[in-house]
Amino acid sequence: MNRNIHKLAMLAAIIAFIVIVLGAWVRLSDAGLGCPDWPGCYGQLTWPEATHEITKANQAFPERPFESNKAWREMVHRYLAGTLVLLVFALTWMVWRDPRARRNLKLLTAALVVLIIFQALLGMWTVTLKLKPIIVMAHLLGGLTSFSLSLWLMFSSRRRAGPEPDVKTRKIRTTIIAAIAVLGIQIALGGWTSANYAALACPDVPTCMGQWWPDANFREGFVLWREIGVDYEGGILDQQSRIAVHLAHRIGAVVTFLVLIFLSFRLFSIPQLQTGGRLLMALVLAQFTLGVMNVALFLPLANAVAHNAGAALLLATLLGLLNRTSTREY
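Structure (tokenized):
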């Protein structure tokens, strides 16, 4: 049974990754409110296509006229997210009905079910609260956490080959955990930057508005909870507040870069982890380059989506390394 659980967990992790990338594509192409209702789209299970359906949709939501290129993107994302929910429930059912399943697998699937339900609610609130930044950021973090739990379930349900990690290998776990924490904070800052439309608040690089430290309003830029009922599409922060958000993300990028590069060099000294170290370094360099290109090229959609995917791949790599240093028997 564990082999089937492992395969299903792998499928869930792959789909979770695709959902994250699709979500970034939807958000960055300004299609987050392509369907102003939830879970349907303009009152339909799909999206309006016929002329009379479009007319009816525009009458029902006059404040947000139907745009086909946005609606279908949002619905494809919802369909795939719904598929992931079903997969998680199937995975949980398989684990809990297997008398040989270990306690840690049951705990992982239970946590994943709770998280995926909350993630669905966040998806609904993203629409009903009109792209409220704290909800958009939480939805991104929830997606990445779901991806991480699916990955860890995949790791935990396989039979690990090879010798147990030695003392030197186990000691690097602390550094890997610290790197995951730093990356998590940076991802949250990236989500906050995107949710507040601050990605181009500094249109030049490495300076910002031609200065190393321009006027920035950090107090206003990091107000997490704002009033309900406001349409946050396009952002409501003034320029100084957006600059503060952008600068925080840039500073976080430099810190994260240094931490992950340091970890990569440490991994090079451990034969069992050298491949992981090389992969981590390659992803860090690519991710940093994509971040610079986002500003230099004025946020091209493909580049920005790749930047989101890169964050998920970095997280997956660190989790894989953490698993390799574990002494738990699988």
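The chain has two domains: 1-159, 162-330. The radius of gyration is 21 Å.
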